[in-house]
Design goal:
Order of helices and strands: HHHHHHHHHH
Largest sheet: none
Shape: elongated
Organism: Gluconacetobacter entanii
Helix content: over 70%
Pfam families: TetR_N (PF00440)
Number of domains: 1
Protein name: TetR/AcrR family transcriptional regulator
Structural class: mainly alpha
InterPro entries: Homeodomain-like_sf (IPR009057), HTH-type_TetR-like_transc_reg (IPR050109), HTH_TetR (IPR001647)
Keywords: DNA-binding
């Protein structure tokens, strides 16, 4: 079912228009089977997202370089933001479909990205209070919305330029004592 959904989202010029009916037909299952398995379309998108982001989550959780403790917290923050940017670009069809729906900020994936970003910010500077880190994490992640990324690319920014600017922005949230 997830493979069928992934294929339909990848082939669609408007991923938001891919319906549960179309996914069920492509997967050769009944629509009810999809709803029992995933609850709703957002649940299906979140499950598909989970399969695709699992490798990154494992790398961050287990401390694989550049996320290991020997790396400076600021470097881990920059590497994390870069990994999210590249993940979104590589999976833009899925990300477009999910980010177009409501409830994104309550999704387990956004909550995970936000928590990690906030923690990296707090580790990078002992001058940062939690409120500042919460806000800054949201601000950094807002620049990684797929529609904004696509708009920057359409305006002529290269992926490498966006990566460099994102790194500079990440460094800018750390308060220097």
């Amino acid at each position: 079912m997830l493979a069928a959904a992934d294929m339909l989202f990848a082939q669609s010029k408007l991923p938001g228009s891919v319906t549960m009916d179309a996914i069920a037909a492509a997967a050769s299952v009944g629509k009810g089977t999809l709803f029992r398995a995933f609850g709703n379309r957002d649940g299906l998108l979140d499950a598909l997202w989970a399969t695709k982001i699992a490798i990154l989550k494992e790398r961050v959780t287990t401390g694989v370089p550049p996320f290991d403790e020997s790396a400076a917290p600021l470097d881990r923050l920059i590497a994390f933001l870069d990994a999210i940017l590249m993940f979104k670009i590589a999976n833009r069809h899925l990300i477009h479909a999910r980010e177009a729906t409501g409830g994104l900020l309550q999704s387990p994936h956004y909550r995970w990205m936000h928590a990690k970003t906030k923690n990296f910010i707090m580790e990078a500077s002992n001058q940062v209070d939690e409120d500042y880190a919460i806000y800054s994490a949201h601000a950094l992640l807002s620049a990684l919305h797929i529609d904004l990324i696509d708009e920057m690319l359409a305006q002529g920014l290269s992926v490498e330029t966006i990566r460099q600017l994102q790194a500079a922005r990440g460094k800018g949230v750390i308060r220097i004592a």
